[in-house]
Design a protein that fits this description.
305 residues, mainly alpha, globular
Length: 305
């Protein structure tokens, strides 16, 4: 007898795929006039306040204890401060489409991390998927490897690479500890609060003389969108999904993010979509698909070794 589909899980997965596909565009617009660390600290600060209101309304605001605080502190630093912050910095110099294509490698990094940590069994299919995904990234620079020598370009790639590694590490860590706490909203409140404080300190350090008058309504609007949808809505759905499926199955949604981000960058920001980008995207998507694909077996045979 087949199980009924989990429509709430499907909705969360769909939301993550769509919303995070639009955040690359949102970040690109926000960094036009707002320094990166002010974007991220404002984004997470607003997100923390929104979740706080929800917790107060439900009378669920409480101290989570030092043990759980430590568990929430690590993904707050890895996934929000470093991954989100460095991605925002990278998009100051990189197109949103290119950023999303490179970020689509995170499922492959999560696969490797999950294998190392014992959450995923190593397979030849998984290895082939990793190689094909890597070839996709190499193909992006097939005719222009010299462009990496541009200092601004190199810095953007460096920050984005660190962001991808940090996000993947945070995802694996969260999956390993997701069973230790069931209140997603309360956990996210602490994560957003920690990240907002750390990122605001970084904003003051790197941009002490910021001119708020230069912040455009367009960039402010993008930051608000990132706070409401990119942080509160998407992170809640992401953590909900992580409790019910594997880390790799959740991160496979990145290839949908990539397709949406590239399309929006072309549609709204006049970013050029070249044949190399399309081929590279297909290679990365193929690599991710091969890594994550599992044939469904029916009947009692599924329990056989």
């Amino acid at each position: 007898m087949s199980e009924k589909p989990d429509f709430k899980l499907i909705f969360c997965l769909f939301t993550v795929a769509i919303v995070w596909g639009t955040t690359y565009l949102g970040i690109r617009i926000a960094v036009e006039t707002i320094p990166a660390w002010y974007i991220t600290s404002t984004r997470q600060g607003i997100a923390a306040l929104m979740v706080l209101v929800i917790l107060l309304y439900k009378k669920q605001l409480a101290w989570i204890g030092w043990e759980n605080f430590k568990i929430q502190f690590i993904p707050a630093i890895l996934m929000i401060v470093v991954a989100n912050g460095f991605t925002t910095i990278a998009e100051k110099t990189l197109p949103s489409g290119l950023t999303s294509i490179l970020s689509a490698l995170s499922p492959l990094v999560v696969f490797l991390g999950s294998t190392i940590m014992g959450l995923q069994k190593p397979t030849l299919r998984g290895f082939i998927g990793v190689v094909i995904g890597f070839l996709g990234v190499v193909f992006i620079f097939r005719d222009g490897l010299g462009a990496i020598l541009d200092p601004n370009y190199k810095i953007g790639i460096l920050f984005l690479s660190i962001a991808i590694l940090s996000w993947s590490a945070g995802t694996v860590f969260t999956k390993m500890n997701t069973h230790k706490s069931n209140n997603i909203a309360l956990n996210l409140f602490y994560q957003f609060s920690i990240a907002a404080i750390v990122q605001f300190v970084l904003a003051l350090i790197f941009n002490p003389d910021v001119d708020f008058n230069k912040w455009s309504a367009r960039s402010i609007g993008a930051t608000l969108y990132l706070a409401v949808f990119g942080s509160v809505v998407a992170f809640f759905c992401y953590h909900y999904a992580l409790k019910r499926v594997t880390a790799i199955q959740v991160t496979v949604l990145n290839y949908i993010n990539t397709a949406i981000a590239v399309f929006l960058g072309w549609l709204l920001l006049d970013e050029v979509i070249k044949l190399d980008f399309l081929i590279a995207t297909l290679l990365i998507i193929l690599g991710v698909f091969i890594t994550n694909y599992k044939r469904t077996r029916r009947g009692p045979e599924k329990d056989k070794v």
